[in-house]
Amino acid sequence: MKLRAVKGMNDILPEESRRWQRLESCFRRTVKLYGYEELRTPIVEQLELFQKSTGETSEVVQKQMFTLERSREALALRPEGTPSAARVYIGESMQAREPVTRWYYIGPMFRAEQPQRGRYRQFHQAGCELYGDAGPYCDAEMIDMLYGMLVSLGLRGVSVTVNSLGGPEARAAYRDQLRAFFEPKKDALSPHAQERLGDNPLRILDSKDPRDQEACQGAPTLLDVLTGEDRAHWDGLRAALDALGTPYTVDPRLVRGLDYYTRTCFEISASTGEIGSQNALLGGGRYDGMVGSLGGPDVPAIGFAMGLERILLALGDTPVERAPLCFIAPLGQKAALEGLRLARTLRERGVRVELDGRGNSLKSMLRRANTMGARHCLVFGDAELERGVVQLKDLQSHEQSDLPSADAVARVVEACAASGAPVAPADTGGTA
Ligand code: AMP
After folding, report:
1. Which residues partner with 358 through β-bridges?
2. Ligand 1 centre from 79 Cα, in Å?
3. Which helix H or strand E contains 354, and what residues bound it?
4. What is the rounded distance in angstroms from the CA atom of residue 341 to the CA atom of residue 321?
5. Probe ligand 1: pick from 125, 143, 279, 312, max atoms within 8 Å of CB?
6. Cα(307) to centroid of ligand 1, in Å?
7. pLDDT tens digit string along 144-196?
8. pTM, entire model
9. pLDDT tens across 355-399, in order?
10. What is the DSSP string of 258-310?
11. Could you give the CA distance from residue 376 to residue 364 in angstroms, rounded to a whole number?
């Protein structure tokens, strides 16, 4: 039997991981400036959590859950991060501790979708959740933060789409209007949309099926049925985005896949790189009723989740530079022991080091140092050790000199710092 990864779940090899780490540290750096703190939750939750929050009528819960049973308890691999964060928010009585809570998370999510480019069964999301502020300004601040971050990553063709889904009252009225609109043309809808007509007609609006798109022509829009308060919120959001100068377009058909959204919803897409048809980089919105509906206090909230695979696809194949490498090539047993000490000293001073302790010939070690792209190589055998020196080879300029080992260390450290490349191994994420 040939062992293979599970369908739709990908390995991320070191060269790729470097691109991931760069993206993750940019995300962490950005959201921390806005006051978000990291929340880490298990990837397995009770199935019920997602049924109650993500929503029974959502495609995700109906068709895409990875479920498992353990000691008669129905569990699920999380398909998104928002429900877990809400569970913690309620369980920890956060509303009693602070008026506004800002959390971020990064991690794998699981949905049994048909895999294609940009759509996987295990994928990764980075997201934020903000609890305790019902006003539209924090919505605009979040959208502006995301727009700025994506542009600073080097993405081109970034476009922000916003809509208001109204509160429960407007939504109920809109659902009725939509049902009345689609009912006479029910037979022209796709079978999937016909099912949605009963439980969640809003979803017909974002169907990709050409039959449904045709049927949607002239459908009433939610913006027409907003209540006075919903409208004030919507106007406030646009005024704040205008004040910030964040470009956006209004799409009254933007509804998004999950059931819990209220008022603001948004999506950001890009038109560059290899992203193709799956060009939604992130989506988010308000879910003012969710915490309450899970048995918590009546606390408003807003959040987003961005797909890391999608952003990397959109960024294209830009390799990430690694820190300069110093190669240590000891000749003989005694030199290998000295090599261990020297390597540790260099690493303590922030230099990336490869020590070849396999007892190979000088020629083969130098070949390896060159193949690995080392900037410097330290060579020494018994004779050098007796004289208290090491040979420092600059593999770029091909200069070499015998130096006391402390001086050689100082030279390498200095050259690495002057190169401008990261001194410690490339962006490790958490410390930004
Ligand atoms: P959602 O949680 O469905 O609102 O999706 C938010 C973002 O996560 C999307 O805009 C995508 O970038 C990403 N995403 C969602 N589902 C997948 C998937 N199956 N594979 C890869 N990325 C995904």
Report:
1. none
2. 9
3. strand 352-355
4. 27
5. 125
6. 5
7. 999 999 999 999 899 999 999 998 888 888 889 989 999 999 999 999 889 88
8. 0.89
9. 999 999 999 999 999 999 999 999 999 999 999 999 999 999 999
10. -TT-EEEEEEEE--STT-TT--EEEEEEE-TTHHHHTTS----EEEEEEEHHH
11. 16
